[in-house]
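Internal tracking record. Fields below are filled automatically when a chain is submitted to the structure queue. Please do not edit lines marked as system-generated. If the sequence contains nonstandard residues, flag them in the REMARKS field before resubmitting.
Queue: standard
Priority: normal
Entity type: single polypeptide chain
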Amino acid sequence: MPIKLWSKKDKTAPNREIAKNRAKTAQLPPGIKAKPRLKSLNLDLERQLTLYPWDTGRARLELYRYLRDNIPMLNAVIWTWVRLCSARFDYQISGAMSESEDREIRATLHQLDQRIYRNGLLKRGGFRELLLQFFESLFTDGAVCGELQLSPSNSSVDRFLLADMRNIVIEAQGEECQIYQEIENHRTQLNPASTFYYGLGAQPGSVTGRSLLAAFPFVARVEQTLVNDMFRSMRSAGYHRIHVKITPPEKRSDETDADYFTRANNYFDDTVEMMRDFGPDKNPVTWNDVAIEYIGPSNRNSSSTAWYMNHKAMIEDICAGTHLAPFMLGYAYGTTHNWAEFKYELVQRQVATVQNAAASLLNWIANVELALHGISAEVQFRFENRAHIGLTERAQAEKIQLENIITKMTNNLITREEAINELARLS
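SYSTEM-GENERATED OUTPUT FOLLOWS
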């Protein structure tokens, strides 16, 4: 059973009536309440799973988590995407009337950050830890589901609790979709007003979303089979396979067939035993009736080269499905500096689209908290994704554009207002 990380607070707080009165005047979305409560995210993942077809949604998520935890390539994919999207963020306040109201809003959000996502095992939490878990679930399971829970007095947001996606079931009811949490054959309908759900790559006909690992079970199995074959064929610590040929001894004239067979077999067994006892610093000493030959292709590097090319093809196939370049996962295939910058810029644009969902979640939580405190202002969260790559080139390009606008205005080719408009488009 998942562990509940929350405890019920005392409902007889002195400021209960004051808090309720403030909540009535606040712009609180209808239907928000503390019930039903989601169970917390189950951190004990089931590790035993074979890579075979599945026929249930839960088994599919188990497979994705198994792939993430046991295949280094896919583990690096999820880790990289989560850290790319969990960039620094800030918020902008709109509707604050005075400096004192601005300070009150920032103090309220700071206190919210202290309790919004806390865990007794962690000595930190807040929005940043929530974002890590948000993107981990989004890229692994293909969706995120959580519930906004209020304090018992309904005077503030208590916390946002993420659900274990293995227990979430979505059913279509006409044009709407209803979310259920199913634990041990017990189904609980979640309150849509207090529940947040987002599916990665959701479509009109399927709002559940798709895991980033959905395309890899077959390719990952081929790649892991290739790695296992390499291990089986090269586990002799770099020594090539050899063939030992033993010439049978000649039969003596006074020797019976049984004695000859016994002597020849003993000689064979002694030679085999000697070969088994070889160490890196030992050399074989035999009669000239023992020949040791190397078995393999004429070019000893061809086998390892062929394996490398086959494995590289598998790696590139996985990289293509994860929308990441090989160099971002630690694989270097001679990528030039400029080409790497171009691909990193493409990744950053993809990151921005995924961050929009996280920003909408943070906006929703923060604005509900302000509404419960009777504050009419709103906040908008935004992520800071600017990298330090190509700063010199961008600065030089901006300088040329500015000089061009000034030159056109100086020569009366454009008016001052047109110059201001062009400067605004550059910002």
